[in-house]
Amino acid sequence: MASPRHAVAAMDGYAVLDSATRPDAPLRLIGESCAGAGFSGSVSAGEAVRIFTGAPMPDGADRCIMQEYATRDGDYVKFAAGYGPGWNVRQAGSDFQSGALLLEAGRVLTPRAMIAAAAADVARITVAKRPRVAIIGTGDELAPPGSAYLGVDKIPESVTFGVAAMFENAGAHCVGQSVGLDDLPALEAAARAALDSADLVVVTGGASVGDRDFAKPMFAAHGLDLLFAKVAIKPGKPVWAGRAGGTWVLGLPGNPTSAMVTARLFLLPLLARLQGRSGAHALSWRQLPLAAPLPATGDRESFVRARWAEAGLAPLSNQDSGAQHALVDADWLIRCPAGQAARAAGETVSCIAF
Amino acid sequence: MISFDDALNLIEAHVAPLGTEVVELGEASGAF
Fold first, then answer.
1. Chain A, chain B: beta-carbon pairs less than 8 Å apart
2. A248 interfaces chain B, CB cutoff of 8 Å
3. What's the CA gap between A119 and A129, in Å, rounded?
4. Which of A18, A76, A136, A161 is most buried, with most CB under 10 Å away?
5. What's the CA gap between A68 and A79, in Å, rounded?
6. ipTM value for the complex
């Protein structure tokens, strides 16, 4: 359906035939046109129809004169000089024509795009399937936020909250968020339940090879086939990915900053692929200047957390992989190739919104 | 241990799209 569907008044006023209308010359009122209840007759020379914003213009009328210029006298109305030059009419199809392409394939249905889709009189729409994601945090030390104080050795489980928020912002549905103790049979059962309900399972913590690192073993019983394990980056070296019974599994480190960085770098591209896009779509690298010096990089490619300062990117002073408070200000990740020399303020670096 | 780019290439090569679905407009916000 075109928008507007009909020519409509853009103001409250009077619909007239412009060529037959002169200042101070009375016109006979023959009806009223309201939004949702248009005037069914037509307007001829010497006639006018009372009309309101959004109402269909009557046949024969081509101008809406604003009511501020009108003087009513019973069934007649006349207009003060100076009512032009605006015609105050939105022509049929002036926003979009019937059959026009409003949203190309791949366009995210933002709040603004939802307006256009609904305006086209569409009730149902074809979209990329939203991935169902389950997330499992692992670790004996973890307790739900609000209860950690009850155990001397407990800490609040924060990672699944941040990662779940990230994947939901990327269009995925969270179908499970849980925390498991370092108990392999119990974790195997949790893995089974997650694999049965999700297209992708994210597991955090337990990514190393210690006696109590069960993130991979808990999926091994379900046929885990690794795609990769350990990536030469800092932070986040233990990140891994694989598939178990047709469901993707992504293992993130347990340290909060490491988990969030690797979620940004691997989870979002994975979700983009599941939704039919290139993984690169989720990684829009930009070239921006440094507002402060950037230390030299070690032997692993590094992703430095930074905030935006007045003149550019300012690396955060706290680059600890376990940091949680510093994440609040870490709006950017600076990509630093392995072995890169120190960079000075003003130099341009590759970065991504975090 | 593999490089970051190699890991991304593996994701690109092995992860297949889930496909499409038809949903009510009211459920489509945020999808594409």
1. 115
2. yes
3. 23
4. A136
5. 9
6. 0.96
- Indicate which of A228, A247, A304 best probes the interface with B, i.e. most B CBs within 10 Å of its own CB: A228
Pick the CATH number of A8-90 from 2.170.190.11, 1.10.510.10, 3.40.50.300, 1.10.3720.10: 2.170.190.11
Average pLDDT along chain A: 95
Would you state the pLDDT for residue A105?
Answer: 87
Q: Are B11 and A270 in contact (CB under 8 A)?
A: yes
Which residues constitute the domain of residue B20? 1-32
With CA atoms as reference, the chain A residue closest to B25 would be A124
Tens-digit pLDDT profile for residues A280-296: 999 999 999 999 999 99
Does the domain at A132-282 match CATH 3.40.980.10? Answer given as yes
In CATH, the number for domain A286-353 is 2.40.340.10
Pair A191, A235: CB distance under 8 Å: no
- Mind telling me how many Å the CA of A111 is from chain B's nearest CA? 7
Please name the amino acid found at residue A242. Answer: G
Cβ contacts of B13 on chain A, cutoff 8 Å: none
| B13 has a chain A CB within 8 A of its CB | no
Beta carbons of B22 and A126 less than 8 Å apart: yes
> What pLDDT was estimated at residue B32?
87
Q: Are A14 and A51 in contact (CB under 8 A)?
A: yes
Percent of chain A topping pLDDT 90 = 92
Give the number of domains in chain B.
Answer: 1
Q: Closest to A232 (Cβ–Cβ): which among B3, B10, B15?
A: B3
C-alpha dihedral (A178, A180, A186, A192), degrees to nearest 10: 40
